[in-house]
Amino acid sequence: MSSKPEQKETHQANGAVLPIVPVDCLISPDRGQLVEPSDFLGPDGDGVEVVVLESRANAKGVREEDALLENGSQSNESDDTSTDRGPEPASPLKETSFSIGLQVLFPFLLAGFGTVAAGMVLDIVQHWDVFKYVTEVFILVPALLGLKGNLEMTLASRLSTAANIGQMDTPKELWRMITGNMALIQVQATVVGFLASIAAVIFGWIPDGHFSIDHAVLLCASSVATAFIASLVLGMIMIGVIIGSRKMGINPDNVATPIAASLGDLITLALLSGISWGLYKELESKAYVNPLVCAFFIALLPIWIIIAKKNAATREVLYSGWEPVIIAMAISSVGGLILDRTVSDPNFAGMAVFTPVINGVGGNLVAVQASRISTYLHMSGMPGDSSETAPRKCPSPCSTFFSSDVNSRSARVLFLLVVPGHLVFLYTISSMQGGHTTLTLIFIVFYMTAALLQVLILLYIADWMVHWMWGRDLDPDNFSIPYLTALGDLIGTGLLALSFHILWLIGDRDSDVGD
User: What residue spans carry the region label Disordered (predicted)?
Assistant: First the structure.
């Protein structure tokens, strides 16, 4: 065979056309195996020069774009995409406003009924001795419900994105994602549950100046045990939901986060009430039980840390994911302080049943939106990549709610679910004779105003925060949802307390009298 220069001259002299072959076509059906040079031989067995054009496709964007984009195939790195990419994971259908609403509606209602049940439980247990004599438990309620939301919704957002971009298609990848993420949320739940108890002790001590070591240990044991058990149960449910929705062709971003909260508030509040009540009864006869329970769950921390460190997908979050959940816990604890001070007044005892509902609905809706925007941005590259889809300046309300892109469309759909959803939940509470509240027209007007204002603020903040974090090389799946759900707790509790105080001042006393 002649040398390469001689080949080139011979083919040019004979007028032969040199083949131009994309690099994707040089890959044989066996993954990772290049086609041998002998496959490109001329008619006489002589070599033919092959001009290779590199074709790079953003596999992440290609796999996920059909889930959210309606503008056809896009690629982040090149306009030249090869149609011979091999099998890809099944993508959800392209979404319209109707399809978004239809997919979100059922999980939204399911989650809402879960918050209604949690409100009914809180309305009952607020009269238990442990809530009467250790009132700091009220401060733990938004903190632990928010912690559950932060961890489970962040887990749901991470796994939804991983499922949409094909990182959970093989059993090995699936198992690695499950074990790493479950270990990670156990570490976060234990640590943040412990810190939440400290915050409850401090917030309870500052106004009254009274401190009890027995009550402090009780709060620590109750908080850590509740956070650990609730995260374990809800994490397993969440993984099953995401795998099932992916196999059914449903976008996990639309259903995972609401279903994460459907039983989450109820399970967490029931665990907190039961555990704190049981430990309170043991204070007099078996004082050693409370510190023993606290020490047991903290002693398990090294095991979960080792498992999470072995997984590359969770190692970074293990080191850098503490700031959002800790700050979110502090924000939710402020909401808990507002709840504690409000329901302690017999005139506002009816607020207890509505607090988990308004906070849960707002948190669920904004978590769906944050997860969708994060998935949308992941199609354009990696966090920190400069892109037109990730503006760094503060967006205008018009671009958030009234533009033609898919995220603005989903924001409108989620906002329109607020009024009908809350009407259903209020009717459910009233029909079950929950709380100490009569649903007068003026009460419904004030309640709906607070709920709409809460969701409006949260959706706008989500649009800004997710893009802001993306532009600063932070993965929104790990960082945005804790802040948003905590702000939902604070804004929801604050607006609800304000509504009850205004109703009391203007004389609508039938809406908020206690027993």
Answer: 60-94
